[in-house]
Design brief:
The chain is α+β, with helices and mostly antiparallel strands. It is built from 7 helices and 9 strands. It starts with a helix and ends in a 21-residue tail after the last helix.
Length: about 280
């Protein structure tokens, strides 16, 4: 009986050991694979050292125990300096504060899109770690926009908005590109000037509109005057033509004839001089 129990005990131990070994092998095998999701790259760290090899999307092999994998997104990242949309230039999450060439304060709301260079994510992780966007990309955006805003007057920022945006985009592309990322797009969503400057601009626009209205009114008056002159000339010309026609048809005799045609047969009671045409019977 004791022998049977001993055999059972030995068999149990063997099964336990075999089971443990199987589990260990399974863990090792499964630990040798990792899945990199869509829009990601895997940075391989070998005993604390970043490898030159970068894992692409899908199932990838790694050496258990030695290799660890840091997954990094290469999808479009969005940085917002906007009062309404999120992260800003101060703790209040406001738009970016800048000073113009004519020393006007302006808050510039911007949205920047970029993504990590998929072929350089290992260098990015090695140099900057997980604080890459906060410590590298955001300061670049601040520096570029503030330096460019200082080259324009407040009015030029509005009237030359496209030019300003293009220059900022070119500089961001160069500087972000030098930090192993790819600049995609810049959107300038708003310029917010000081209240006093906004009122000055409003007053200027109002004055220009009033001046334009006055100019248009003057042009209208001039046009109407020219019309009246033209009408007077036309009437004078008509009278001249009519007079010429009367002269051509006998002058005074023609006038007398027209008077007779209109006469009702009653002579005036008072006659002054030769005011009443007389028709010569002899003629």
């Amino acid at each position: 009986m004791n022998e049977v129990n001993q055999m059972i005990t030995k068999l149990t131990k063997k099964f336990v050991v075999a089971g443990l070994l199987a589990i260990l092998v399974l863990v090792v095998i499964l630990g040798g694979f990792t899945i990199i999701g869509p829009g990601q790259r895997g940075v391989i760290v070998q005993f604390g050292k970043v490898s030159d090899r970068i894992m692409g999307e899908g199932l990838n092999f790694k050496l258990p125990i030695r290799d660890s994998v840091v997954k990094m997104s290469v999808q479009t990242q969005t940085i917002q300096f906007d009062n309404k949309l999120g992260k800003g230039d101060t703790t209040e999450e406001s738009s970016m504060f800048c000073a113009t060439k004519d020393l006007q304060d302006v808050q510039i709301a911007v949205i920047v899109n970029y993504h990590l260079d998929a072929a350089k994510v290992n260098k990015t992780y090695q140099q900057y770690g997980s604080t890459y966007q906060v410590n590298i990309i955001e300061p670049i955006i601040r520096e570029v926009i503030k330096s460019q805003a200082a080259l324009y007057t407040a009015e030029e920022l509005v009237t030359k908005r496209a030019e300003f945006s293009n220059k900022v985009s070119v500089m961001l592309s160069e500087k972000i590109g030098s930090k192993d990322s790819v600049f995609e797009r810049l959107n300038i969503t708003n310029f917010q000037f000081s209240e006093s400057f906004s009122k000055a601009i409003e007053a200027k626009v109002t004055a220009e509109q009033n001046a334009l209205a006055a100019k248009n009114k003057l042009e209208q008056v001039k046009f109407e005057a020219e019309q009246r002159v033209a009408e007077a000339k036309g009437e004078a010309e008509a009278i001249k033509i009519q007079a010429q026609a009367i002269q051509a048809q006998g002058g005074k005799e023609y006038v007398n004839l027209k008077w007779v045609e209109k006469w009702n047969g009653v002579l005036p009671s008072t006659v002054l001089g030769d005011s009443v045409p007389m028709i010569s019977i002899n003629k």
